[in-house]
Specification:
single chain; about 250 residues; alpha/beta; Vcp-like ATPase, Chain A, domain 2; Rossmann fold; 7-stranded mixed β-sheet; 4-stranded antiparallel β-sheet; globular; binds S-adenosylmethionine
Amino acid sequence: MISEEDNILLIDKKGKKYMVKCRGKFHSHYGVLDLNEVVGKDYGIKIKTHRGDEFIVLKPTFIDYIEKMRKMPQIIQSKDAAMIVAITGLNRGDKVVEGGIGSGALTIFLANVIYPGKIYSYEIREDFAEIAEKNIKEHKIDNVFIKMKDIYGGIEEKNVDLVALDIPEPEKVVENAYDSLKFGGFIFAYTPSIEQMLRFREKAKDYFKIKTIECILREYESKKLGTRPKTLMVGHTGFLTFGRKIF
Ligand SMILES: C[S@@+](CC[C@H](N)C(=O)[O-])C[C@H]1O[C@@H](n2cnc3c(N)ncnc32)[C@H](O)[C@@H]1O
């Protein structure tokens, strides 16, 4: 049952998504929705604007949540986060160290995957940590621990399954990550540029078995004249380099 405290996902007739708190009025291109009508009902109900246009009310998944939450620094997109799980086999109960938290997008993704396992996120900027903390709180997860520390200075956790890095110089963390990881665990570095990726690989190759991939996503659309790839796509996000501790 939907309560006033819930974030709900509204989808309009064109499929556009909006994430809002379930209270008061919501103003859209199609008119005004009275969200009080939704309180106490079950997800899946449809409500009409004062002009008669219908919206469906859904429970946001964590992917919807990441898409719609407030972001400050560039996030790791869910397609790339999913590759982390696909390659490392990250699972329920695992322990993750992250540097840095940014807006908390990767954090929320991984925290959902490993729950009730814990994620320890190192961050140096108070303003970003505040945004991430707010996003995490809103999403109601309690397995994330933000540490206001420079990850280049060391990692306190031991027996870690994954060290995930989205920082400018991930190569500076290689030795400390090696000591923190359990055998079979992974280091992951997200690097937008080739030069960053090469610097990380050069350092990491002496400690880990490494590989680098890119995740290129191409969506298709169906129109009257036929089905074909969409004209516009995201050309590049980042290089994903993985290293497994097997030596
Ligand atoms: C691109 S953002 C991370 C975005 C995040 N992966 C997401 O998906 O929302 C990079 C973050 O790393 C932080 N950072 C940079 N150097 C750091 C360091 N040495 N230790 C900890 N955090 C660091 C920055 O302040 C910034 O918040």
